[in-house]
UniProtKB/TrEMBL annotation:
InterPro entries: UROD/MetE-like_sf, Uroporphyrinogen_deCOase. This is Uroporphyrinogen decarboxylase. GO terms for molecular function: uroporphyrinogen decarboxylase activity. It comes from Pan troglodytes. Gene3D superfamilies: 3.20.20.210.
Length: 227
């Protein structure tokens, strides 16, 4: 896309495509996190969701670890909970518990409360703004892992281990496959170059073969799997 600086370090992207690289590229889960004093300082300025809705704050938090460490990729600071918010659902952060939905979706008719997808896309404009701003400020140093618009995408299935093999194959795997299929199809339809996609299913060690055939270029391993 026009307006983005030329990428100077593509080691991560080449590795994601299965190409040989001079070294193993490194990026870290939660690399923008509480272990950084500057992260804690930035986060203290406003509440979590206000931070997520600020492209400037998301960009700053994304770039902080790269100022300290020679990482091979940045990963955009955001959260999946901004999606149900954009759909019109209330999400609260309960101290000692974490995110909570005061009015969860329990029945089929509850879906009628959700906003139209076109409205949702507009509501999430700040995410795209954060990605654009971050790519510009990276100045081509490393690629950005993020949501639509980033040169690499990662899909998280954070509850694979809670489901177990049977329920995972029924309730998660079909949608994991569909996400990869739809993203690749829409990129083709838009005349855009393909981007490598990563699937990370936490504690999903029982489904590595299925995940390897799900349409992603990279399968993420967690601490329960010997690399």
């Amino acid at each position: 896309p026009q307006g983005f600086p030329e990428l100077k370090n593509d080691t991560f992207l080449r590795a994601a495509w299965g190409e040989e690289t001079d070294y193993t590229p490194v990026w870290c889960m939660r690399q923008a996190g509480r272990y950084l004093p500057e992260f804690r300082e930035t986060r203290a300025a406003q509440d979590f969701f206000s931070t997520c809705r600020s492209p400037e704050a998301c960009c700053e938090l994304t770039l902080q670890p790269l100022r300290r460490f020679p990482l091979d990729a940045a990963i955009i600071f955001s959260d999946i909970l901004v999606v149900p918010q954009a759909l019109g659902m209330e999400v609260t952060m309960v101290p000692g518990k974490g995110p909570s939905f005061p009015e969860p979706l329990r029945e089929e008719q509850d879906l009628e409360r959700l906003r139209d997808p076109e409205v949702v896309a507009s509501e999430l404009g700040y995410v795209f703004q954060a990605i654009t701003l971050t790519r510009q400020r990276l100045a081509g140093r490393v690629p950005l892992i993020g949501f639509a618009g980033a040169p690499a995408l990662q899909l998280f299935e954070s509850h694979a281990g809670h489901l177990g093999p049977q329920l995972f194959n029924k309730f998660a795997l079909p949608y994991i496959r569909d996400v990869a299929k739809q993203v690749k199809a829409r990129l083709r339809e838009a005349g855009l170059a393909p981007v490598p996609m990563i699937i990370f299913a936490k504690d999903g060690h029982f489904a590595l073969e299925e995940l390897a055939q799900a349409g992603y270029e990279v399968v993420g391993l967690d601490w329960t799997v010997a690399p």
